[in-house]
Structures are given as structure tokens and as C-alpha cells.
Specification:
The chain is mainly beta. It has a single domain, classed as Acetoacetate decarboxylase-like, CATH 2.40.400.10. Helices cover about 5% and strands about 55% of the residues.
Length: about 220
């Protein structure tokens, strides 16, 4: 078996994603955050997200991705979101994500299907069911252009004492969708039972650029 490729940043990607913002009790997710990262919270709550991404084009080819960001955090004058749990079905993406941006990617098995207006997927790791998603894309309202400048989500990542800030930007066509994520293994994907799930958004035909990580 050949060794996974590490493709250096910056990366340009295309695809479709589904984003469900979460209002998490900060005390339920604080232990998930890397050392030195302080959650940004109000009245004991912090903003996190579950995301599923169907990449149709990337520097390592098409692949699938499920990620969990439990909180918005701050560190050394920067603020952003920390990805603490993430699975992809590409060994090259695993190796590149860890090396380029300290993102703790793990290899999973994804079954993604697009049938008419329905998008659904299942995620497994070594035969263990982790999560599933099912969304229906409505005819109305139609997708509208959107840009990351209106809802920036930079990353703050940590690994073995090294901390980085990862700015990224992009644009696509945003649309509210019906449905949601189902967590099959809360030990592997620790979304708090008390989390309030906000309406989900589909970002279709997006183009995304992940920049070179900046040391903190």
C-alpha cells in the first residue's frame, strides 16, 4: 500500500455542504477543547456546528467529510472555531489536513447519496456507525449567493503544543433545508444532548480556499 500524499496549502476546493449550527452548554463541551483555547460564550452557551461536506474537487480529488466544532474559541488574540472531531474517506486528506492545519482528521467510510431534492449520508469508522444525515432541499426559497465575509468561520487548531490560526474564505449558494443529523455513537461524536439545533443550511456549488496556517 502506498503512503498517503501530503499536498501543501493553500487548497482550493469545490462541492456542497450542509451546516447545522448548535447552541451548546459551554460546561458540556469545555473538556473537548485543546489546552490554551478559551470558549467564547454568553450566558453559559457557546456556538458550535455539525457539518457534512461533499467535495467534488480538491487537490487530493473528490472526498466526503463529517466534522464537529463544539465551540467558538479564542487564543492569543485570535478567535475562531476548533474542529475536534472529523472523519474523511481519503487517506491523502487525512495526512494533508494533519500536516497543513493540525486538523485531527481520521479515516472513515461514507455513503453519500443525492436523489432528486434529497441528500443523505452515513458515516462509519471500522464498521461502527457514527452518524447519519438526511436533508431535503426545498423548491422555495431558491438558493441565494452567499460569501464567507458575512459569516466568517476561521479555525484555531492545536496539536502537541503547537497552535495555529487558519483563515479561509469562499462563496456559494445558500439555502435553508429540512432535516438534520443523527448521532449514532455519542461517545465518538460527543454532541451534548442538551444542544439546541438551529435550522440547517445547504451551501451548494461552493468554492473554498484554505490558506496556509499562521503560527500563534
Amino acid at each position: 500500500m502506498s503512503q498517503p500524499r501530503i499536498v501543501p496549502a493553500p487548497w482550493s476546493l469545490k462541492g456542497e455542504s450542509f451546516i447545522q449550527l448548535l447552541v451548546n452548554p459551554v460546561d458540556a463541551v469545555r473538556h473537548l477543547l485543546p489546552a490554551g483555547f478559551e470558549p467564547v460564550c454568553a450566558r453559559g452557551k457557546t456556538l458550535g456546528a455539525l457539518m457534512y461536506v461533499h467535495y467534488t474537487d480538491s487537490p487530493v480529488g473528490p472526498y466526503e467529510e463529517l466534522l464537529y466544532m463544539p465551540a467558538r474559541v479564542r487564543c492569543r488574540g485570535k478567535s475562531g472555531y476548533a474542529i475536534t472531531h472529523i472523519w474523511v474517506d481519503s487517506p491523502d486528506s487525512v495526512a494533508s489536513g494533519r500536516e497543513n492545519w493540525l486538523i485531527p482528521k481520521r479515516l472513515g467510510a461514507m455513503d453519500y447519496r443525492a436523489e432528486g431534492r434529497v441528500r443523505q449520508a452515513t458515516v462509519q469508522e471500522e464498521g461502527r456507525a457514527l452518524a447519519a444525515m438526511r436533508f431535503t432541499c426545498p423548491l422555495f426559497p431558491p438558493p441565494v449567493p452567499g460569501h464567507s465575509v458575512f459569516f466568517p468561520m476561521p479555525l484555531l487548531q492545536e496539536r502537541q503544543g503547537r497552535r495555529v490560526f487558519v483563515p479561509f474564505g469562499g462563496w456559494g449558494f445558500a439555502q435553508p433545508v429540512k432535516g438534520g443529523f443523527s448521532v449514532k455513537d455519542p461517545d465518538a461524536l460527543p454532541v451534548p444532548a442538551a444542544a439546541r439545533r438551529l435550522p440547517a443550511i445547504r451551501l451548494a456549488r461552493f468554492r473554498l480556499c484554505f490558506s496556509v496556517a499562521r503560527e500563534l
